[in-house]
Amino acid sequence: MSGPLLKTPLHDWHAAHGGRMVDFAGWSMPVQYGSIVGEHQATRESVGLFDVSHMGRLYFHGEGAARLLDRLLTRQVEGMSRGRIRYSLMCNERGGILDDVLVYHLQAHLSGLYHVLVVNASNREKIVRWVQDHLPDDGSVQMTDRTRETAMIAVQGPRAMAAIETLVGADVGGLSNYCGQETTICGHHGIVSRTGYTGEDGCELIIPTDAAVEVWQKVLANDLAQVSAAGLAARDTLRLEAAMPLYGHELNEDINPFQAGLAFAVNLDGREFVGRSAIAPKKNDPQQPVRVGLTLSGRRVPREHYAVLAGGEKVGEVTSGTFSPTLNKPLAMAYVQPAQAKVGTKLEVDIRGSAEGADVVPLPFYKRR
Q1: FRET partner for 107 with CA separation of 20 to 30 A, picked from 268, 321, 339, 353?
Q2: What is the mean pLDDT of residues 236-259?
């Protein structure tokens, strides 16, 4: 993206409180405030507070909205209960993944039912164009990109509910996973959802831009919950431990949902959607590389594009890697040939010319208690 970096409504707060700002998908975002490991562990043990306002938020109204989204997403949207949220994928005609998304089905206080699509920041403009190209000509669907007029805050960790329960009008503790609703947040109209990208319990809050700093500071001020501001780096180590795929790493337009291990996010039966005819044959394709988890025996960290080896021959490639603060060992996700994908298989990763031992392990690496 050319031009000046976009700023979230919390940008000035981050800069004033030690956030190290970086360019992320055309946005100026805090990668960390202090110790990445400290922010990671604070989220695992108490509460991490993340500004995720860079994520795209697309609103869909009209009688044809559910039908349109059902045709564009791999997961069924028609028939979704009010208040439900589903993880889904949007694919091209070849079955490659355009983006992984969350689709919300919500009840507006005044204007009836509607849908929200939360998309990755790096893909927002692409997805907006894609949807516009598929809008029906009869005007039965209206899409509004509300990314710039709203903020989004993720409250994640075992004490996340305690951090926000006095600030939110809804019974957040009573929300099931992947459910959400309109409510008041610090007296402002907004949306609360039991979702996240860290492998921990938690909620995500969508609020007006002018309420962002107030909400952020009030959550952070909850001494009983021990809330810590956290940046993109900790969010990445957290999601990697939880084996959550990241677009541009585990997902792209040349990867299909089945090889990515996302069969749960594809509903093939009794429906048509863009890419279905290309995706369906891949369900049981024994030839395609598949996503696996690797733990390494040493201390050196595998990075994206490092070769995965078997008997000295390349059989795959690392897509994401880190040193896990929770497990105290290096780990990675990679795509490898099916013959090397079985749990327990001994492989190696070429780390700058040195072959480091690696084991194929079950995903996710980490599951919360």
Answers
A1: 268
A2: 98
